[in-house]
Structures are given as structure tokens and as C-alpha cells.
Amino acid sequence: MRAAPRFPAVRACIFDLDGLLINTEDIITAAINRLLVEKYDRPPLTRSVRAQLMGLANSSNGDAFHDWARLPIPREQWARESKEAFRRNFPQCGPLPGAEALVSALSRAFSASGEGGNTEEDSKEMIKLALASGSTAQNYALKTMSSTETQKLLSFFPSDHRVLGDDPRLPSKGSGGRGKPAPDIYLVALQTLNSAAEAAGQKPILPSECLVFEDSVVGVEAGRRAGMRVVWVPHPDMAIEYRGREREVLAGRTGVVKMGGRDDEERRRLGEVDDGWAEMIPSLEHFDYAEYGIDRAS
């Protein structure tokens, strides 16, 4: 039996957005299905196809979608129509169960790391929060424009600790910047947190001191490639589709997306099945703070 690993206390939590904190995935599916069924007399998205698309940038206009959908129109037309459907429906987004309570609690919680400062009074370090979403700034604005609940939820993330898919702090695609399952967006989020830690006179946060919250398989792999611990909170369709493969997902070893460039090098950084670096929970309401060395404020 593999020995239980010893981890440092978590000092930072980094959250995905879509399908984890807010119900975007269901809204996207509903919008796509209306176009498919009502306008083009095509079948609605299957659970298997949904699982393939979740977490990928521009997934509704990628090869996996079009190979399945076989639409009678050019991709460019579908891209315009689906973008307009999303624009109309994104303002309906709202928080998922447990999201606001968890993020609020973490914003007032402390790490048991003892890295807060040199005096006893300063020794308790507050948990730092960041958002790492492949959503563009324009779509992010649409998703938050109408719901006061969503705005309240995301207000716990300082604006400079929100890293979106078109964030200029990300390396350009031409120089290696990539979407998930590459670790780029999580590594940039860590850089923003370490800038704040340095300003507060604290030691830099290590990747192993970061906890990533993700709903998608590619997102779990991105967190693992970044050298971070991961909590996987899959959509019910995703959970069913990967039933029996959960341990493989948590290790980041599904290989659902092939990457070029540094892929071989980064896959060597991944752990092994049952190495303890990741866990699956059914919803954010089931998060165990003590498991990660997080002290909730009384």
C-alpha cells in the first residue's frame, strides 16, 4: 500500500469559474441545444460529447463538436450564431451550490503554515484567493452583469488576482501560452499571489502549497501539471462519463487532449494514480478545510 504523503498546509486556493462556481455549463448546453434542435434539426448534445467539451476553450466550435454535430453550415456561421446565443444567455448565470459559502469562508480563513510573519501576532497567514478561468474578459462581464449573487461571489477575488483566458499576463500562444490542460493559467495565477505575498513580507508560495478547485478533466490535469494539489468537483454528466476512471482523472493521466511542444516534459511532472495529490468531492459543500491545514475564522 502506498504511504500517505505529507503535504504542507495550503496557503492559497485557485478556482476555475465555469461549471465550478457558476452554472455556465448548463446554460451553454441549453443554448447550443436550442440551435441544434430548433434551427438545424440536429440531435441535442449527448452526455459523452458534453464531457469532451467541458473545460476547453472555444469547445463549441472545435473539431470534437463539429465532427459529432455535422452541421449543414460553415464553422464561421456557427461561431457567430453560438456566440450570439451565449451573449443572450450568459447574464442568467448564477452561483452553484456551496460556492458563495466556501469562497466567503476561505476569504476569512488562515493557513496553518505559520508563514504570516515574524511575530506571534503576525504568524497566522490568511488564505490567498485567485481565479483562473479560460473565459474571456468580455464573456466574464456578461456572466456577471445581471446577477447580484454572482457579483458578490466574485467580489472575494481581488481584480488583479483574476486571470482570464485573454489576460495579457499570460504568454502569447506564439511563445507557448496555451489553454488547459497546460498549466500556464495556474502558474500565472500563482505569480500574482506571490507578488502580494512579497509585498506583505511573506515567503513565496510554492505550487505544493496551492489548492486548485476544478470541475473539468482538463482542468484537473492543468492543476497537476502546475505541481499543485487539486479538488475535482465534476458536473453530474462528467461524473457519470468518467465513472470507473476517477483515479486516472485525479492523477491527470487521461490524456484527453494531446499537446505539442513541452507536453512530454510536463507529463513527466505529473504524479501517479493514488498519490494523494488530488481528491474528488460531489459538490463544494463537501469541502474539508482541516484536511488541507486551513483554519476557519471563528
Automatic annotation (TrEMBL):
<dbReference type="InterPro" id="IPR006439">
    <property type="entry name" value="HAD-SF_hydro_IA"/>
</dbReference>
<dbReference type="InterPro" id="IPR023214">
    <property type="entry name" value="HAD_sf"/>
</dbReference>
<dbReference type="Pfam" id="PF00702">
    <property type="entry name" value="Hydrolase"/>
</dbReference>
<dbReference type="InterPro" id="IPR023198">
    <property type="entry name" value="PGP-like_dom2"/>
</dbReference>
<dbReference type="InterPro" id="IPR036412">
    <property type="entry name" value="HAD-like_sf"/>
</dbReference>
<protein>
    <submittedName>
        <fullName>Uncharacterized protein</fullName>
    </submittedName>
</protein>
